[in-house]
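In this section we walk through a basic example: taking a raw amino acid sequence and producing a predicted 3D structure, encoded as discrete structure tokens. The instruction is simple. Fold the sequence below.
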Amino acid sequence: MENRTKMLLSLSLVALFAALTAAGTFISIPLPFSPVPVVLQNMFALLSGMILGPLMGSAATAVYLIIGALGAPVFAGAKGGFAIFLGPTGGYLLGYLLASLIAGLIVGSPRTHEGTNWVRIILAALAGIIVIYIPGLLRLNMVMNGNWAKTFTAGLIPFILGDLVKGAVACLITPRLRSLISDIYHA
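The resulting token sequence is shown next.
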């Protein structure tokens, strides 16, 4: 495949995963005891890195975040604007970008045409989930006036099981899509 075609394919995949992450806003379940809703954007940000690799995966997540910062209603609850980054969920949004990068670094680029390595895929999912929580909880704790008990109750405990399920789904989806993308690049 010639370089121009590969570049177009790469740009299309980045745009696709940015759009998928944005589409995750349509699944946003507010919780009465937390300013943090249940969302699917975190799974798509994780998938971006796991499927596209570190550069393209984080580029897709960065495009999603930039579009949201510019005001497009792509964040949880169909909200947009830079002010969301300063609110209780702003740290999680930063975590999405870090998760795409870290998960992609662990799994590697699909262009290398490596076989499926389940250990790396599972580690990438777990690391990505943890990396979303770190800045998310730090920012939420600032909003909660430094009360870690409230922070964990509102931003961690109710989400762990669901995020592990989303991570498992990402692990199941990743090998086939990475293989498909690798085959297209090497056609």
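Looking at the output, two observations stand out. The two ends are 6 Å apart (CA to CA). Residues 103 and 124 are 4 Å apart (CA to CA). In the next section we compare this with other chains.
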